[in-house]
Amino acid sequence: MKKCQMAQPQKIDMEEGKKARFTSQGIRALRNKLRLSQADLGKLLGTTPHAVYLWEKKIGVLNLRDKTKAAILSVRGLGAREAKEKLEELGKKPKKGTKTHS
After folding, report:
1. What is the pTM of this model?
2. Which of 49, 69, 96, 99 sits at 20 to 30 Å (Cα–Cα) from 31?
3. CB 64 within 8 A of CB 2
């Protein structure tokens, strides 16, 4: 099963990514700020909804991959409206291997 394709994250300084601490409360607060469901946040970050669920339930600091950290950092500055627009852009792109009928 392939994960959702995420939008190209903004170029994030590697030092900023290493210094950033992610906690379950921070992920939940970000999701609530953007007014997204776990599934929508997962799609926006390029992960599964179950991964978002696990992040929100974990106690303490999250140990995330660099790619995921970069995606979260790029979404942090967005507002709810901008997040919805990015989701719509992701939803309109045809999936690989499917043909579009004209």
Report:
1. 0.71
2. 96
3. no
